[in-house]
């Protein structure tokens, strides 16, 4: 019997297989509100994920971005079938598949698949690892530990969330911030997993991220890997100002927070 973490990995990889197969093909928009839209590829990927969950965890609840779900189960899977739909539809290979499990509101297992790279990042709530499968030239699946690192000095700023007082806009052009970090702007939480792997030094976003299909998997991965994760004022996540600062280490977090504090 698969562990919850293995179920998360297999579910994310099922969605990734669909997303990868549909990448570069014509997609049809089902719901369209400008730059925020859903395609038939999103729907197909979520169906593939749900099929895995139904097979291995038939009694659990599921909350998906495309098909919704109920909130009355103590065990509930959160599913974002293609995180970065805008990129995927445009043929930009920066998108992810997010699957996480909440037990009584606490994320206990999660997986983030990067279809373009052929990698899956996962956590069982204790350790964080990267799985490189046969698609990357291996004869069998290989799991390797991941850990944050501040060396890249790359910090992703999520411009899709609104910050109090337009902090996001000012942050990108702040001289002090740019002296210390190189800001990047991406619309997918794939970049949050790069904090856990050491590819990015940090990630900043606003908003209430509680029980979110978009954020739960990445947050769990960062925490298990040892990244510093707080709200926008440096307090406990999901409290007060909400939002997210994810940093490779305490020093990087302190520098990011110091710049944000000058903008309040």
TrEMBL record:
Top-rank taxon: Bacteria
InterPro entries: Inositol_monophosphatase-like
Pfam family, one: Inositol_P
CDD domains: IMPase_like
Gene3D superfamilies: 3.40.190.80, Fructose-1,6-Bisphosphatase, subunit A, domain 1
Protein name: Inositol monophosphatase family protein
């Amino acid at each position: 019997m698969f562990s919850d973490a293995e179920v998360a990995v297999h579910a994310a990889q099922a969605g990734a297989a669909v997303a990868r197969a549909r990448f570069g093909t014509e997609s049809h928009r089902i719901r369209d509100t400008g730059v925020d839209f859903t395609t038939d590829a999103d729907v197909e990927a979520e169906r593939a994920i749900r099929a895995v969950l139904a097979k291995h965890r038939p009694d659990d609840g599921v909350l998906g971005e495309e098909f919704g779900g109920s909130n009355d189960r103590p065990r509930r899977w959160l599913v974002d079938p293609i995180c970065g739909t805008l990129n995927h539809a445009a043929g930009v290979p920066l998108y992810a598949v997010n699957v996480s499990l909440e037990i009584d509101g606490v994320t206990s297992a999660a997986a983030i698949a990067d279809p373009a790279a052929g990698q899956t990042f996962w956590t069982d709530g204790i350790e964080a690892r990267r799985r490189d499968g046969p698609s990357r030239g291996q004869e069998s699946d290989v799991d390797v530990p991941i850990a944050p690192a501040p060396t890249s000095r790359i910090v992703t700023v999520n411009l899709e969330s609104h910050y109090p007082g337009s902090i996001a806009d000012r942050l990108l052009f702040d001289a002090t911030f740019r002296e210390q970090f190189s800001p990047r702007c991406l619309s997918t939480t794939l970049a949050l997993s790069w904090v856990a792997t050491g590819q990015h030094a940090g990630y900043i976003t606003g908003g209430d991220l509680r029980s979110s299909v978009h954020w739960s998997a990445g947050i769990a991965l960062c925490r298990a890997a040892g990244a510093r994760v707080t709200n926008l004022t440096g307090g406990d996540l999901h409290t007060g100002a909400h939002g997210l600062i994810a940093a490779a280490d305490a020093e990087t977090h302190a520098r990011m927070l110091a710049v944000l504090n000058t903008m309040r």
